[in-house]
Design brief:
Layout: H1 55-59, H2 74-91, H3 98-107, H4 117-126, H5 136-144, H6 148-151, H7 155-164
Helix pairs in contact: 2-3, 2-5, 3-7
Length: 172
């Protein structure tokens, strides 16, 4: 580490330089107790892993002036729809983009000024308190209401299906 000129130093002492760590004879393996072996686990309620999933929460601010929340709290709507958007992005192996959120908010009628009455009733049963970490299972149930086949489609097709009949995108 550099020192000011007024700090005395031994002029005969050689300065320390970088040295590489010793080379390893074998490659690294997951042999510690906490290491995940064989890749990420899969199964019910484990979700889909993807890169930079939290970026969906940054993108939500672009929808603040367009969201039609009805009787629901913004935090609950954002938590549920961001989770659906994250699942869609992860299925494509990428971070979330604005189109993932557009698809998610559209599926549940939050970008529609006058959504179907049955959809409003359903989402008022699905979304309350979903932002709380104590309601993870409810959030997973909401995400599982949208099939992988629906999420693999272009966001324009998802919007067109919502306009025709919202039940094409979401399982009631």
């Amino acid at each position: 580490m550099a020192a000011p000129d007024y700090v005395p130093s031994d002029p005969t002492r050689k300065p320390r330089t970088y040295q590489s760590p010793p080379s390893r004879k074998r490659s690294w393996t997951a042999d510690r107790a906490g290491d995940v072996r064989g890749g990420q686990p899969g199964g019910a309620r484990l979700g889909v892993q993807g890169p930079d999933q939290g970026y969906a929460l940054t993108l939500v601010s672009q929808f603040d002036d367009r969201l039609e929340l009805g009787a629901l709290h913004r935090a609950d709507v954002v938590a549920g729809c961001a989770a659906v958007a994250m699942k869609r992005a992860a299925l494509f192996g990428r971070a979330p983009v604005v189109h993932d959120l557009t698809a998610a908010f559209t599926m549940f009628g939050f970008l529609d000024g006058s959504p179907d009455a049955e959809l409003v009733e359903s989402r008022e049963a699905w979304f309350p308190e979903i932002a709380s970490e104590h309601h993870y299972s409810e959030r997973r149930e909401l995400v599982d209401r949208v099939s992988d086949d629906v999420l693999h489609r272009p966001h324009g097709a998802i919007i067109a299906d919502y306009d025709a009949d919202w039940r094409r995108n979401v399982t009631v």
